[in-house]
Amino acid sequence: MSTLAPEILSLFENLNKRQLEIEEKITRLKNVLNLITQQELSAEIRGSIKELGKLIDAVKLIAEEQEKEKDKNAILQRLQRNEELHKQLQASHRRAILTSKQNIEREAKIEREMLLGRGDSGRNLNVFEMRNRNLTSEDTLIHSAKDVTESLRRTTELMQQEIERSAYSAKILDESSKTLKTTFSEYRGFASVVRGSKQLITKLEQIDWTDRLLIIFGLLVFSLVVLYILKKRVWDTGFGWISWFASWVI
């Protein structure tokens, strides 16, 4: 089985977190007894489901961009479960709206019966007031829970962004460390080459001086040989002729 990259796993974690949040909102929607609260919560769920679909499409696009076929198949195979849950959430949202609508209609019917005074009017009025107070408290609790959930969602997103930023920084530092190690190794190789070149230049200089001395010595020997030949052929011969001519004159 192909191991997914950390950023891909992070996307799937975000998908799962969004789906859990939508399921929680749908559960709350089923128990809503106020029309305004139902409309607000239903619109919020609808927007969350739409964002979830966009996120699923983004993961599909990332899968198509994978170079290896096994990585692409691994992402699409795991994404298939999220797509099924996305469809289930859409159906659950519709069912929750119907359930909430039925509860609201039933609640309105009970309130009408109370207002019309069926049965004990005093008792019905007290029950009606108590139900209104309970509904108000319920709405307050729902809004408070929604605010807390929204704050937790924002905090989670900030933490996720910080984690991704830290992971990216760690990746950059790791790549920089590898680059520095590679550069250091190259510099060490250059230092070895420079030392070898220096030693070679020193040997070449020594050989150059040796060649110069040999050339000078050869020139000196050649000059001595030439002088010796000139002495034998010119000086000694000329001096012999002069001695012979002098002896003949005398």
TrEMBL record:
It comes from the Eukaryota. Residues 144-234 form the Sec20 C-terminal domain. It is found in: Endoplasmic reticulum membrane. GO terms for cellular component: endoplasmic reticulum membrane; SNARE complex. GO terms for molecular function: SNAP receptor activity. It is a single-pass type IV membrane protein. The keyword Magnesium does not apply. GO terms for biological process: retrograde vesicle-mediated transport, Golgi to endoplasmic reticulum. Residues 12-82 form a coiled coil. The chain crosses the membrane at residues 213-230. The keyword tRNA-binding does not apply. Keywords: Coiled coil, Endoplasmic reticulum, ER-Golgi transport, Membrane, Transmembrane, Transmembrane helix, Transport. PANTHER family: BNIP1-RELATED (PTHR12825), VESICLE TRANSPORT PROTEIN SEC20 (PTHR12825:SF0). Belongs to the SEC20 family. This is Sec20 C-terminal domain-containing protein. The lineage of its organism: Eukaryota, Fungi, Fungi incertae sedis, Mucoromycota, Glomeromycotina.
